[in-house]
Write a structure and sequence with these properties.
Layout: H1 5-17, H2 31-51, H3 59-71, H4 78-112, H5 124-137, H6 144-163, H7 169-192, H8 196-206, H9 219-234, H10 236-242, H11 246-251, H12 256-278, H13 284-296, H14 303-324, H15 333-353
Helix pairs in contact: 2-3, 2-4, 2-14, 3-4, 4-9, 4-12, 4-13, 4-14, 5-6, 5-7, 5-8, 5-12, 6-7, 6-12, 9-12, 13-14
């Protein structure tokens, strides 16, 4: 008898986690204490990240620069402009990106009941890459690159939703995998007939970076993440009910298919807006929800907020590591997150296999 997708996913889940997402993990720490710790880190981490760079600044200098930037921009010194115009937008974009990817991953793992689901599962990254390849290969500049990447992501999601309009989990996953391979192949084909400069530019963009951060682009991903957090929080009770299975959710009055497709659309729009400006940054949406579930369980009323905050704080430190790990050279953020994510799941797998 052929192996079904649902059986395969269940087997992978049991191998890696020895549990299902409907089995809520016993909290290791008090959710409210973790929330308080993350809120503190949300203030301290950006200050530390802003102070470290080619021009070293003290935390006092950073605080004074932020104060002068808000109160009297005309009186800013050179060090103040470094903080306000260069480092602060980058740190804020890292916060927004980390929060959005972590939130999207948590929601997708809930609605698909698949612990391996992440924001790039449904062809979003591949669609954005194709849009970016087209923009770079045809010489589009400025705002055209993120716009083309965003449109590419939306096309990918639209095709996936049409192919799996019944909302079944297996159909969504299969459609996402198929579209990812198709769009990745098309992007590779365009690059094959393009020039080497376009290939290098697309490669750096696809690995993820916050180097493009500026005050002009910050409102777009911020609005997307803020609206998504508000909408998802409204349906948190329904998402928790969905973890126990479709039939159980139906008995609690949850419209399963509309909820699943609606959450997919919300997370797709968030991820598309982030990929458009930051490139492909993997493993955040896959790793952070697992860490949060291990710490506070999956039934806490603040789990979504904690997940978003954890992703935001983590991304600030990941970006700082990417900037400082090598002298006079910046590593792509996506490379750092991929290494961290791989090590995390290797350790988790080793612990699960230990008798």
């Amino acid at each position: 008898m052929p192996l079904s997708i649902s059986t395969l996913l269940k087997g992978i889940n049991e191998l890696l986690f020895n549990t299902t997402l409907s089995q809520i993990v016993t909290p290791m720490v008090n959710p409210r204490w973790l929330l308080l710790l993350l809120l503190t880190a949300l203030v301290v981490s950006p200050l530390v990240a802003i102070s470290i760079g080619s021009a070293e600044l003290t935390l006092t200098q950073v605080a004074m620069a932020l104060w002068r930037g808000l109160s009297d921009p005309a009186a800013m010194a050179i060090s103040d402009r470094i903080v306000i115009e260069l480092r602060l937008p980058r740190v804020l974009l890292a916060l927004i990106c980390g929060a959005g990817l972590a939130l999207s991953g948590s929601v997708l793992q809930s609605v698909t009941r698949n612990p391996l689901a992440d924001p790039y599962l449904f062809g979003i990254s591949a669609g954005a890459s194709l849009g970016a390849v087209v923009a770079i290969s045809f010489g589009f500049a400025g705002f055209s690159l993120p716009l083309c990447a965003f449109l590419g992501s939306l096309v990918a999601v639209a095709v996936v939703m049409v192919m799996a309009r019944d909302g079944e989990i297996e159909g969504l996953i299969l459609a996402g995998v198929a579209i990812s391979f198709l769009l990745s192949s098309l992007a590779s084909l365009v690059l094959y007939f393009g020039d080497s400069q376009a290939t290098q530019a697309v490669l750096f963009w696809s690995l993820g970076s916050f180097a493009r951060a500026s005050w002009e682009i910050l409102p777009y991903p911020f609005i997307a993440v803020a609206v998504a957090l508000a909408l998802v929080s409204m349906f948190q009770r329904h998402l928790l009910a969905l973890l126990a299975g479709d039939e159980s959710a139906h008995t609690q009055g949850v419209a399963v298919v509309p909820l699943r497709l609606g959450m997919l659309l919300i997370t797709a729009l968030v991820t598309a807006s982030l990929v458009a400006y930051c490139g492909g940054i993997g493993f955040v949406g896959l790793m952070v929800p697992h860490i949060v579930r291990m710490l506070i369980g999956g039934a806490s009323r603040v789990s979504l907020l904690v997940t978003a905050l954890f992703g935001a704080v983590m991304m600030v430190w990941v970006d700082l590591l990417a900037r400082q790990l090598l002298p006079a050279q910046e590593l792509p953020v996506g490379v750092v997150t991929a290494i961290m994510g791989s090590l995390f799941f290797i350790v988790l797998l080793a612990k699960r296999r230990r008798p």
